[in-house]
Amino acid sequence: MATFGTIDVLANNMAIAPYREGGFLQMKDQDWEEIFQVNLMSMVRASRAALPHMVKQKGGFLNPVLNYP
Fold first, then answer.
1. Which pTM was predicted?
2. Which residues make Cβ contacts (< 8 Å) with residue 6, sequence separation at least 6?
3. Closest CA to 17 of 2, 1, 32, 4
4. How many helices (H) and strands (E) in the chain?
5. Residue 36: count of CB within 10 angstroms of its CB
6. How many CB atoms neighbour CB 31 within 10 A?
7. Tens digits of per-residue pLDDT, 14-67?
8. Dihedral through CA 3, CA 58, CA 60, CA 35, nearest 10?
9. CB of 9 within 8 A of CB of 61?
């Protein structure tokens, strides 16, 4: 904020692949937790950080991008 003054766009483009050796049936809860932390919660946290600034400046655009290979 100090350098540019506004946040006009937040492109939430982050993900990790949900593949593990042995496929879906071999994935443990810990594997899913890691995937949710990166793919979903990182988007929530970045949006939570940017949104107050966008509300204050009365504008901005959140662009959530979900990628799965």
1. 0.75
2. 53, 57, 60
3. 32
4. 2, 2
5. 12
6. 14
7. 888 777 788 888 888 998 898 888 888 989 999 999 999 999 999 999 998 876
8. 90
9. yes
- 20-25, long-range: CB within 8 Å, 24+ apart, which pairs? none
The neighbour count for residue 7, using CB atoms within 10 Å, is: 19
Q: Which residue has the tokens 């793919």?
A: 39
Residue reference for tokens 């939430």:
12
Report domain extents, the chain.
9-65
**Helix ranges, the chain (H):** 29-36, 42-56
The Cα 17–Cα 62 span in angstroms is: 23
Size of the chain in residues: 69
